[in-house]
Amino acid sequence: MTEVAGRRLPGTPCWATLMVHRADQARSFYGALFGWEFEHDPGRRGAYTSALLDGRRVAAIGDGPAEPLRPVAWTTMFASDDVDGTAELVRACGGTVAVGPLNAEGEGRLAIAADPSGAVFGIRQGERSARAEPTGGPGSVAWSELRTWESPLVAKFYQVVFGSGAEPSAGEEPDRVVLTVGGRAVAGVHGLGSRLPRDRGAHWTTFFETVDVDETVHRAAGLGGRVVDPPYDSPCGRAATLVGPEGAAFALLAPAPA
User: Fold this and answer.
1) Is the domain covering 3-132 a CATH 3.30.70.1620 domain?
2) Over its length of 258 residues, how does the chain's per-residue pLDDT go in tens digits?
3) Which residue, 80, 137, 183, 246, is the most exposed by fewest CB within 10 angstroms?
4) Domains 3-132 and 141-255 share a fold
5) Three-state SS for 171?
6) What pTM was estimated for this model as a whole?
7) How far apart are CA 126 and CA 107, in angstroms?
8) Which CATH architecture is the domain 141-255 placed in?
């Protein structure tokens, strides 16, 4: 994640949240898988907790509304210096704003939106505290990737909304664009065409870092997770896609040596 003087630059994936029906079950799964500890957030209603690594916040898990048909998914949050202005750009560029902008206690100002392909993402303004800084290393968010039908037009949406740069992927995968902020790669946009799962549509995937993807996949299966994409070699390193409790998809990544 890109930062300058402790501030995440606009357009950088800065946070990941998971809203579920049974937060206790999700905490047990991810806590055992990544070594997370959990802390209830003062001022937040319900079972909303921060996941901690070495005392620093890396993600959040909370109970969402009890709606049986509401999909359970990890949400990638992008940094912004002006959530209201960013939300207006989302609308102007063909996206939709479903929630907010609004003030969330202890979290700054937030909005939940969708890009023109229907992929849901969040917008977040304001740093909570020094404890909110990413740790890096196993168990932290390592990468975010948008899986969509085709990449050029959707990547252009994020370029305009967040001021991101965009470069073709250096790997051999076709129709893949890397979003950049401050000259650094921060996220990927991968066009899958007919290979995009019809039951999910376009969606952002959160990758969590691990030392050994194959071993972590094996442990996840033992904890009740399900493998969607077995371990494979990607432009960013060895990766795999899993489904956790209640069907929330996420990915693992062992970053390739720099």
Assistant:
1) no
2) 444 334 578 999 988 999 998 999 999 999 999 999 999 866 555 578 999 998 888 999 988 765 555 578 999 999 999 999 999 999 999 999 999 899 877 678 999 999 999 999 999 997 553 334 555 789 999 999 999 999 999 999 999 999 999 998 876 678 899 999 999 999 999 999 988 888 789 999 999 999 999 999 999 999 999 999 999 998 789 999 999 988 999 999 998 876
3) 183
4) yes
5) coil
6) 0.89
7) 7
8) Roll (3.10)
